[in-house]
Amino acid sequence: MEPIIRFENVHYTYPGDELESLCGVSLAIEKGSFVAVLGHNGSGKSTLAKHMNAILVPDEGRVLIEGVDTADEERLLDVRRRVGMVFQNPDNQIVANVVEDDVAFAPENLGVEPAEIRRRVDASLRLVGMYDFRMHAPHLLSGGQKQRVAIAGVIAMQPEIIVLDEPTAMLDPQGRHEVVSTAFSLCRARGMTVVYITHHMDECIDADRLIVMSNGRVAADGTPAEVFANTALMEREGLDVPETVRLLQELRAAGVRLEGEPLAVEPCAELIAQALLKRSRK
Amino acid sequence: MAEIVTEKLCHTYSAGTPFEQTAIKDVSLRIPQGQFAAVIGHTGSGKSTFIQHLNALLQPSSGRVLLDGQDINRDKFSRRDVKWKVGLVFQYPEYQLFEETVYRDIAFGPANMRLGKEEIDERVREAAAFTGVEEALFERSPLELSGGQKRRIAIAGVIAMRPEILILDEPTAGLDPAGCAQILENIRNYREKSGATVLIVSHSMDDVARLAERIIVFDRGCVAMDGTPEEVFTHASALGEIGLSIPKAAQLACALKKQGVPLPDGIFTHERLLRELLAVKEGRVC
Amino acid sequence: MLKDITLGQYFPGDTVVHRLDPRTKILLVVVYIVALFQAEGWIGYALVTLVTLLCTALSRIRLRSMFKGVRPMLFIIALTALLNIFYTTGTPIRPGWIVTWEGLARAVQMMLRIVLLISGTFLLTYTTSPIALTDGLELLLNPLKKLRVPVHEMTIMMSMALRFIPTLISETDKIMSAQKARGADFETGSLTRRAKALLPILVPLFVSAFKRADELAVAMESRCYHGGEGRTRMKQLRMERRDCIALILGGIFLALMIALKSLCL
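The joint structure predicted for all components is written out below.
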């Protein structure tokens, strides 16, 4: 199957910068997958995200969204409709004074029929669980609620892909949980392709695939279990590793035999308990 | 000597209007000199309102704040002087940087204290050293630096006042893990060298578990729990009820105990968990 | 505190006034202002006050919120009143005094006029969402597009400004607190000193406003914003019967006021 997003040897340097922010990134992202992108500040992960809907266009190489080149000016709106973007600061992406007007903004720009916009707005708000707040003023909502409104505003374009660029960086734990679970449900229940950029490793545990960016390059790419297992690399990149992974590795180093890489707390505890208790029974 | 005590502190916003809202109620706490305490609670629990009382930015609706036994709100001058003794670093402090150079921004607080030029210079260099701001950056504009650097400059701006009590509202919010680790290290360093009391508001239970000697839990404007990390984190379900979690290591310890692994209570750091698990292993093998 | 400023605030509701077409409401406010300036004598002012109170009651806006809108203007209102008291000739209250009965009457009327002017316009912004307001304005000004006036751009700028007022106000609050914590003093000293003391607030505020504008532009573009061309509206503005009735009532009101004025003369 043709991947929904394809990066072909993408190079990009910000105007005025000397160093390249992306140095030859090649990637293919499968339709319907949940891809998490980790990296420290300045690793190029946001630059990567901004290439996915033609906010930035490669200096060299190409980015294809369902086969459409993002550099093709004629198809610009088409690309942006297919790839919805959610950004870090919830305050700076809400354009209207009332929640439902904000969600209507994108379909209005696309010239959708009024009745159809109404349908989409209601459906999008229900999907993120913000329908009851449709008449509220956005600045009175919590951070997590604002981000869910921003997600609804993007879903109303009916995109195939949704890219979230550090959507939880400014939120408290509760808001983070709201946004992460909304992002996962879009992928799992709605079949949308989700690209999720973050520096919180615990948000990536359930992703299908985890990409680690470093100095404008892909430093690691695989399932979360595979990537986290390379603790040396994670440490070098200044990234955390889940508590479970660290514990399993250190126990192994101390001679405990443990099979598998469970990332969540419960299965990990089960595995350790089995190993320790079985041993003691001998 | 700097001991801060609050007596039945209450604060109500927009009192007498339909928007009246009690932010904190009957908060009585004593924070002795040199303590490293953490304040936790979800958004809207009153913890931000509470810390803004400690340097008289907010005045209590009722109750008192005492610094070394004296009411900090007794007059205009004490309200101003308390700001030098109790340094408060707000959330996202990098948004308060305004001077043309890093040096002048760090010097803003000491200059407001009307100190001499040499004294200011000494303090700026000292504060910069504490927060790892290189002197090579002094003549640069703070606005062109990276997020982590800006954050450290902003913290240096408060440390330059040499506060005896340093309060930080979510100092690591929005930073990547390396940036977080560095800031926490800077804070620990300042406390060790200066002997200051440190009060940190944080959402990260793992950071709190590693650093703090005492945890104060706020819920709906009141102090819901107050004790050492061991004491507070044993109440995992009570914390869960008010929307807070326990550190990952404590969660693992809990799950392991449920699976029948004999572990003692009060495990909440990774190092301790590993040590106890290895002890279980050795014990059983021998 | 700064948070109390209600400028451009919208109170959602579902009353007749809320449901009127924004174009109707904008026109009615224009009619209202013209009518207000026709007011002459106590009967005229009483009539306008009555209409204002009636509209406020219909829109279920609390009088307290109305006064809140007036509060920032109190200084100007007081100044106008004073000027009128001292600069109107007529019968002195007591022989030898400068203050005249006519002056007092004029002062009260002038104060009423300003308060009513503010209340009327606030009633518009309280009951009309800024989006509806700018939409209405855009449609009313549409004919000007033929004269190459950038109507869409102007109205979208206005709605963005309205959207960010609360955000910037709370940001100003935060920055002020942060600078106070570093010992900044905004209250004492000479005027130049105090003006200089504002720099630590204004510089960060501008820096962040520019950053916000930058991010907002990217966010709008990525949501397919490309100017006014080909845009549709979720909320179609349609003139209903109640709009016709309201406009007719507005017309009658204006005619009445003009008639009253000519009677008085």
